[in-house]
Every structure is written in structure tokens, then in C-alpha cells.
Amino acid sequence: MVSMYCNRLYANKPELAASRIDAIGYQVGHQLSERYTMERPRFTDHLDAIKFICKDFWSELFKKQIDNLKTNHRGTFVLQDNRFRWVSRMSLDPSENGDLSQENAEAAENKAVQEPNMHLHFSCGVIKGALHNLGIACAVSADPSQLPALSAANILFVILPKVG
Domain 2-161 adopts which CATH fold? Predict the structure, then answer.
């Protein structure tokens, strides 16, 4: 799905593709959060909701918990996944890179960075949608510290709850 938005529908408009992919992720996260919390009481504070995301929600999606959760105790949370599955084994389609001239090599390198970033937009949308369903309006961003060298895929997700 992400590849279709990047390569076909919005090939020349990466910002629009990122926005649309984030919105789809938001819907997915909102619905999954609704499903996974159906039998639970509402969370009383932000920290309980974030812990739910790190343990239960993440386990349902990735069959593992978040590796590390940090906070500055002023509302900002940082979730660290040391082997983020959605980008850790990503590769490009070699048929798209048949001619490896200098221009094509640069284009392939740009694509090698852009495609995982688009998957991270989807992931940020999923987290944002799940938290919004739990009563936390927030902004979510991803810091791909090892892209495009994705063998380890150490990703930091930064959550900034919106005030007011």
C-alpha cells in the first residue's frame, strides 16, 4: 500500500503521499486501539495510555514490546524499537534500477531513503490514531537513526501531546 502511494498515485508529490499515508495509518491505529481496549476501563492518565501502547498495542502489531520508553516528565515521550519490523528487512525492487548510470544511482539512493521514511509516516499515523482514541491528542514523529542502513532499524518515535 505504501509503495503504491509512493510510486504510482503520488510519485511526484512525496509530501502529499506522506500526508495521505499518515492519515491512513491514523485510521488504522484508531480502529485497532478501539478493538484492543474494548474490554478495558478508560486510562486515567497519559502515562497509562503510553504504557498500553508500548506493551499491549505494540505486542499485537509486532509480536514484541517497545524496547525502551523515555519521558522528560513534561509530556514528551520517546519510544525506541531496536528492530522495527516494518523497515528492518526492506529492499528495493531491482527491476526498477536496471540502468545504473550516475543519475539513476542517485535516484535509487534517494528512493532507498524515501520508501522506509514513508513506512514510518504510516507508523506515526498508527500511533497517533491509537493515542487519539485513548483521549490523547498528540503529534508523533519518527527518528530513523540508521536509515538507509536498515540491518538494525533502530527507530525512535517521539510523542508530543497537544496542550489544550
Answer: Muramoyl-pentapeptide Carboxypeptidase; domain 2 (3.30.1380)
